[in-house]
Amino acid sequence: MSDEQNRKDPRRQLPSVDTVLQQDCLSPFHKNVAPDFITQAVRIVLERERERATDSRALAKADKIAEMAAAELRLWMQSKLQPMINGTGVILHTGLGRAPMPKEAQEAVAQVAQGYCSLEINLKSGRRGERQDLLLDDFERLLGAEAALVVNNNAAGVFLVLSALASRKEVIVSRGQLIEIGGSFRLPEIMKRSGAKLVEVGTTNKTRLADFAEAITPKTALILRAYPSNFKIEGFSESVPLTDLVALGKEHGIPVVDDLGGGLLWSWQKWDLPEEPTVSESLEVGVDLVLFSGDKVLGGPQAGIILGKRELIAKLRRHPLLRVLRPDKLQLAALSATLKLFFDRDRLPERLPTFERLTELTESVQQRVSDFKHRIENWTDWADLEAVKSFAQTGSGTLPAEKLPSAALAFCPRAYRPHQWARRLRLGTPAVLGFLKDDRFLIDFRTIFPRQTESLGNAVKAALKK
Question: Each residue of 148-166: pLDDT tens digit?
Fold first, then answer.
């Protein structure tokens, strides 16, 4: 580039880094951001401006560049993990953190997070304790469990059981239960990684007790039932009752493991919810180990819970993997507080957010949709504004193929297409996640708590502003 061309280069008009740093709008950041990071943000903005520089384009002045750098710094300082209003109709939405935790669990987490806690100290003796003993009394009182173990999620629990009890041995599973769940978690692959050998019996739609019996060899370590929680086989099908599997296991001295996943402790049919296998039933019929999640219908934090025979749990506790998979103090605090709510199971719909969303009367959901529609109808020129019938779902592998009657609001301003309106709400504060169906944007109110109505209204107002 010649000297004349260099003088005419529009990029030479950009201010220096030092000039931008002296602008007033960057002063507040010096209280909680190191100077190096402020300088880095300024350099990033200046580089963007250089790349966009043309002869015809007016370049930003120092004050404008400082404002853009301040916006960049605010993004850096903002947590990527944001609260959201769930309008998807999926109650246990994995992408949104599954079960919303009860107030008691939130308070318990805040308490232990503030300082030190008795995670592995026995307060009676003053000696070193064991975090795995913290919840044993609760599980024993609630479910009559001999022993309990908590790991950081249910998939980890399955992997630990297979590794500790069946490595280099055989595990018998029905072909109809070789499941894949979210995140490409495939049971055959997990079994292979654990060192256990999978023995498939029966067919996809039909497995009989004789199939299990014929597959037993001296190398058989476990009989595993993996409840197909995210799909349902109907029609010409047959499966083996858990009681029969337990009897077969006892006859041959082989432990029976029940991977339930969902975590429903007792029947919830008293609230007119469909039948689902329960932890209490599995323990009552005599399974040796039952596994389930903490953040599904149990309504607590992410955790994998293993209940069952004392001698098997002892083997799991001695396995080196447990150190890798163990829960932290925040998980245990939240799980403990959640379990306490089950001592008064009749009040679960009042106190456990997951049960609250599952049991709200459809008429109540419809009324909330109607009230919100009436509230916002004069806020703008709506291209679409209609209360519609909807169907919600439990999600996260619970109640497969079951739909919960619900109600939704289809709405979109005339100034936007539905996908544009969805994006504006998703990027707002608070963020709102709905769904698109038949070229309409909808939010299902079964997954929106009544206490969030005001926040939802504020989000809509903010999204309507230019």
Answer: 999 999 999 999 999 999 9
Is the residue at 437 inside a domain?
Answer: yes
Based on the fold, state whether residues 194 and 336 are members of the same structural domain.
yes
How confident is the model over 347-369, as pLDDT tens digits?
999 999 999 999 999 999 999 99
Cα torsion angle, 437, 442, 443, 446, sign: negative
Judge if 141 and 199 occupy the same domain: yes
The tokens for 62 are 């120092």
Distance CA 394, CA 315 (A): 34
6 near 12, Cβ under 8 Å? yes
Q: Which two tokens stand for residue 108?
A: 């318990």
340 and 418 inside one domain: no
Last residue of a domain, one of 347, 372, 394: 347
Three-state secondary structure readout of 226-287: ECCCCCCCCCCCECCCHHHHHHHHHHHCCCEEEEEECCCCCCCHHHCCCCCCCHHHHHHHCC
239 and 343 share a domain? yes
- Kindly state whether residues 298 and 236 are assigned to the same domain: yes
Domain limit, last residue, from 310, 325, 347: 347
Q: What's the domain range around 362?
A: 84-93+358-464
Taking each helix axis from N to C end, the angle separating 418-426 and 453-464, rounded to the nearest 10 degrees, works out to 120
Please tell me the total count of domains within the chain: 3
| Within-domain flag for 352 | no
Mapping DSSP to helix (H, G, I), strand (E, B) and coil, where does residue 210 land?
A: helix
DSSP for 77-128, written as a single string: HS-S---EEE-SSBTT-GGGTSSPPPHHHHHHHHHHHTS---SSB-TTT-SB
Shared-domain flag, residues 199 and 286: yes
Query: Which letter does DSSP use for residue 121 in this model?
Result: B
Beta bridge partners, 356, equal: none
Residue 231 has pLDDT above 60, yes or no: no
pTM value is: 0.89
Q: Which alpha helices (DSSP H) does 297-396 contain, by range?
A: 310-318, 321-325, 329-341, 348-351, 353-359, 362-376
C-alpha radius of gyration, the chain, whole number: 28
Please report where in the chains the tokens 């107002």 appear, as a residue: 461
Same domain? For 334 and 224 the reply is: yes
Structure tokens at 135: 């919840």
In this structure, are residues 87 and 432 in contact, taking their beta carbons and an 8 Å threshold?
A: yes
